[in-house]
Fold this sequence. Notes:
Elements: H1 9-13, H2 18-32, H3 40-53, H4 60-69, H5 74-88, H6 90-109
Amino acid sequence: MKPIDFTSPRAAARPFTPKLADYVEQPLYSQVWQDPDLSPRDRSLITIASLIALNHANELPAHLRRGIANGLTRTELSAVITHLAFYAGFPAAITASAYAHATFSEDDAA
């Protein structure tokens, strides 16, 4: 089995479920993420926290990068992960921390 590229889960899913990938783009990214009631930075923070709490770590790399692009800092992301240990559980936080370290290590090496 070919390994899944979790840097872009949507791109990895598109060949098998193109309509699902389209739904993510329309309406999620075209409407929901563009709604001015929350800033992109806040949406990223909420999304990352939700992914950690729900133990969906495979989606984290793409959203961690998006969070940085939307104005979050690595320090803030570290603090969020640490804070969530008390609400989502230490295993979820440790997993998220490992994914964040790997994601940013890859980015630094590039």
